[in-house]
Design a protein that fits this description.
Layout (H helix, E strand, L loop, with lengths): L1 E3 L2 H13 L4 E6 L5 H13 L2 E6 L19 H11 L3 E3 L3 H5 L17 H4 L3 H16 L2 E6 L3 H14 L3 E6 L19 H7 L1 H14 L5 H12 L5 E10 L13 E9 L2 E8 L7
Parallel strand pairs: 1-4, 2-3, 2-5, 3-4, 5-6
Antiparallel strand pairs: 7-8, 8-9
The structure holds pantoate (PAF).
Length: about 280
């Protein structure tokens, strides 16, 4: 695996490989890699000749009150893990390399960016889209791998691809979970031991909701109430939102059908955690 800091060097290396018709898989990350990220790299490796993993803690997607300054980093460990998982290139640009002194361009995807996550984080998805667009422009034609934990992010990026005709195929990959069902996230490291135990209420609430749906319930309000009641059992958890929406259009789903997605965002201590499941298929626990 080759570590690259300059985008021009990555472009030149990939151009050379493309001459030989190598297919390229791209796995964008903000580092502090866990099994979720590694599952993306491994799948990208299975499906492509060359895998590029990127690590860039993107300031554009953090608001002033968020955790940009404390976002966990361990480049040495990440380098080892990315290499073991099969990455061929690890692109670790500096802030200066990505955005020179300043960035004046912003890509905003209307509607989908201002609901759910976008209510608490109004500038978040424009920040994500702008940096992901830049990575797509640097890497060029590729398949790009994103985790389904960030369901709304995945759809913001898919919409950007459609609207702006990027020659990138997006591959959504299943959520990877801890033994108790908690979705893996770099931000789980913010949890104290007690908060980590309480966090298992998130997947538990999804499992309870799924049991209710399996028993025949199709009323979204009843399912939502059950999830909220389960989450409220923990005094550590502050609910941001619990919603049932159409998983493609993000329109609120009053009745559950095979396109309904259950989306949850909560705050526990310093961590803001999200999770989701298909209402009819349940969480992959
Ligand atoms: O999901 C993430 O880690 C980030 O939002 C991404 C896609 C790498 C963009 O910074």
């Amino acid at each position: 695996m080759k570590t690259i800091i300059a985008h021009k060097e990555l472009q030149d290396s990939l151009d050379d490989l493309r001459v030989g018709k190598s297919s390229i898989g791209l796995v964008p990350t903000m580092g502090y890699l866990h099994e979720g990220h590694l599952s993306l790299i491994k799948r990208a490796k299975l499906e492509n000749d060359i895998v590029v993993t990127t690590i860039f803690v993107n300031p554009l997607q953090f608001s002033a009150t968020e955790d940009l300054d404390t976002y966990p980093k361990d480049i040495e460990k990440d380098t080892l893990l990315a290499c073991e998982a099969g990455a061929d290139f690890l692109f670790i640009p500096s802030q200066q390399e990505m955005f020179c002194d300043d960035v004046l361009t912003s890509i905003s995807i209307a509607e989908i960016s201002s609901i759910l996550e976008g209510v608490s984080r109004p500038t978040h998805f424009a920040g994500v889209a702008t940096v992901v667009a830049k990575l797509f422009n640097i890497v060029g034609v590729c398949s790009a791998y994103f985790g389904e934990k960030d369901w709304q992010q995945l759809h913001v990026i898919k919409r950007m691809i459609t609207d702006l005709s990027y020659r990138v195929e997006i591959k959504g990959c299943p959520i990877v979970r801890d033994a108790d069902g908690l979705a893996l996230s770099s931000r789980n490291m913010y949890l104290t031991e007690g908060q980590r135990k309480e966090a298992s209420n998130i997947p538990r609430s999804l499992l309870k909701a799924y049991d209710l749906i399996k028993s025949g319930e199709r009323n979204s309000t009843a399912v939502k109430q059950l999830i909220i009641a389960q989450l409220e059992k923990s005094t550590e958890i502050g609910i941001d939102y619990v919603e049932l929406v159409n998983g493609e259009t993000f329109k609120v789903a009053d009745r559950i059908d095979d396109e309904t997605r259950v989306l949850i965002a909560v705050k526990i201590g310093k961590a803001r955690l999200i999770d989701n499941m298909s209402a009819l298929n349940g969480p992959n626990i």
